[in-house]
Amino acid sequence: EVQLVESGEGLVQPGSSMKLSCVASGFTFSNYGMNWIRQAPKKGLEWIALIYYDSSSKYYADSVKGRFTISRDNSKNTLYLEMNSLRSEDTAMYYCAKSRGGFGEDYFDYWGQGVMVTVSS
Amino acid sequence: NIVMTQSPKSMSISVGDRVTMNCKASQNVYNNIAWYQQKPGQSPKLLIYYASNRYNGVPDRFTGSGYGTDFTLTINSVQAEDAAFYYCQRIYNSPLTFGSGTKLEIK
């Protein structure tokens, strides 16, 4: 059974940093692209970052480019999202999601349960 | 960047009715569209990929159609458990933009 389990939830102050993790199981993690998607309270889904199966390419939404970094450790079956210079508008539920293919620019067939990040003073 | 526009924003339907919701891309995306269902308090779930392919285990009352810029998700004989938000997403090239969603309520 495919499972994606995010961690790193919390409340942080504006301008600070935070790192999320997503541990994968039930599939060969190193073969698939992975993504982060967020959803602000009462709002829709926003794709924010994608990483290829081998970390050779990474893509970001304009809203997080230069502040957030996606990475992965295939030896640990883990996806990361390093978030810097956090703003109140980054407050959201953050989901990791598996892409159908290795390059990631494909549909998302499995999603984690999400973790809440709150940016507030 | 390509913008995905969904309509209507919400709809209220009776059990057994047929419902159609729309997704319009600002540029030609061929058949590179996915549809997801998100129920309250849950993660999104994949329904349809490449515009018209039903994902594993998705009931056959869900049908996707369209090509180019105009896409439709149809639910035949809506059930109470179909109450949810529905999102389309442009796939194949980043940014992998989502539409703003359609809220389906059951009367």
The chain-level mean pLDDT of chain A equals 97
Largest sheet of chain B at a glance?
A: 6 strands, mixed
The protein's oligomeric status is heterodimer
Low-confidence spans of chain A: none
SS content category of chain A = mainly beta
Topology summary:
The complex is a heterodimer of chains A (121) and B (107).
Chain A: E1 3-7, E2 10-12, E3 18-25, E4 34-39, E5 45-51, E6 58-60, E7 68-73, E8 78-83, E9 92-99, E10 108-111, E11 115-119
Parallel strand pairs in A: 2-11
Antiparallel strand pairs in A: 1-3, 3-8, 4-5, 4-9, 5-6, 7-8, 9-10, 9-11
Chain B: E1 4-7, E2 10-13, E3 19-25, E4 33-38, E5 45-49, E6 53-54, E7 62-67, E8 70-75, E9 84-90, E10 102-106
Brief account:
Chain A has strands spanning 3-7, 10-12, 18-25, 34-39, 45-51, 58-60, 68-73, 78-83, 92-99, 108-111, 115-119.
Overview of the molecule:
The complex is a heterodimer of chains A (about 120) and B (about 110). In chain A, the strands form 2 sheets. In chain A, strands 2, 4, 5, 6, 9, 10 and 11 form a 7-stranded mixed β-sheet that branches. Chain A has a 4-stranded antiparallel β-sheet with strand order 1-3-8-7, with no helix packed on it. Chain A has about 120 residues and is mainly beta. Chain A is built from no helices and 11 strands. Chain B contains no helices and 10 strands. In chain B, the strands form 2 sheets. A 6-stranded mixed β-sheet of chain B has the order 2-10-9-4-5-6, with no helix packed on it. A 4-stranded antiparallel β-sheet of chain B has the order 1-3-8-7, with no helix packed on it. Chains A and B meet through strand 5 and strand 10 of A and strand 4, strand 5 and strand 9 of B.
